Amino acid sequence: MKKDLVTKLVPLFQGLSPSEVDEAVVEVKKQVDAEVLEKRRNELEKLFDSQMETLKLRDCPSAILEAFQDKRDEVLSTTIEMEIPKGNIPFIPVIPSSYVGIYTLMSMVRNKEKVGYTYLDPNEIINNEETPKNPYFIYDVEPGKETLGKSVEKAQEFIKKQNRLCHIPDEDIAVCIHTDTLSDHHLWSTGSRVRQDDEVPFVYLDRGEPRLNWTSIDDSDVSRWGFASCCERG
C-alpha cells in the first residue's frame, strides 16, 4: 500500500522544491489529523448521548442526569486523546449507590423485559476502592473478558499490574446498564467484599434475570466469571 501511495504522489510533487514538498506534506497531515479528530469526537458524542438516553428511559432522576450533562465537555476532552483498546468502552457514567440506593441501581439493569434485583443488604458491602462521592465517569472500561477464568486473587493482581482500577458494585452495575456484558459473562466486583474477606459481590443472570448477590471466593466455577476494570475515575 505504501509503495502504491508513493507512486501516486510522485507526479503531484514533480517540479516542486524539497521545502515545498515538506510544507505540502505537513499541511496534508494537519488536515487528515483534524478529520480523524472530528470523526472521533462525533463517535464519542453519540456514545455520551446514548448513555444519557438509556438513563432517562430507566427513570434516572433529572438532577443526576444534569450532573452528568455538566461533565460532557470534560468527558469528551478526556477521551478524545486516549488510545482505547479494541473491545474497551471509552467511558461509562456511574451513579453512586449513596445517591439512589443499590435497589434502585439494580432496577436500571435490564435483560430484555426482565428487571434487575439484589439480595444484598447494602450495609454489608465493604468497598476497598476510593471512588468519587458525586456522579462520575469511569474511563477506558475493560468489561471483564481479559480476566475470564481467573480467580479473584489472580484477577486483582492482573488488574493492578496493568495500573488499572478494580470495580465496586456501583461500577459493575453501570457496566451492565450500558452494555450487554451479562449475556456473555458474569461480573465479580473485586474492589469490594461482603462482610468478610472471602465473600465477593457479583452481578449475574439467574434464569435471564439480572441479579446482584454475593458468593464465597472458593465456591464458584470461574470459567464464566470476569472482573471489569477501568483506567481512571472522575
What order do the helices and strands come in, and which of them pair?
Blueprint: H1 2-13, H2 18-57, H3 62-70, H4 72-80, E1 89-94, H5 97-100, H6 102-107, E2 110-111, E3 114-115, E4 117-118, E5 125-127, E6 136-141, H7 152-161, E7 165-166, H8 169-178, E8 186-188, E9 192-194, E10 199-206, E11 209-216, E12 225-226, E13 229-230, E14 232-233
Parallel strand pairs: 4-11, 8-12
Antiparallel strand pairs: 1-6, 2-3, 5-9, 6-14, 7-13, 8-10, 10-11
Description:
With 234 residues, this protein is α+β, with helices and mostly antiparallel strands. The protein has one domain (2-233). 43% of the residues lie in helices and 22% in strands. It has a 5-stranded mixed sheet. Strand 10 and strand 11 form a beta hairpin. The protein is globular. The mean pLDDT is 88.
The main sheet orders its strands as 4-11-10-8-12
Shape: globular
Helical content stands at 40-55%
How would you state the average pLDDT, rounded?
88
Order of helices and strands: HHHHEHHEEEEEHEHEEEEEEE
Number of domains: 1
For the sheet with most strands, the description reads: 5 strands, mixed
The number of helical segments is: 8
Report the C-alpha radius of gyration, rounded: 22 Å
Q: Regions with pLDDT < 50 over 5+ consecutive residues?
A: none
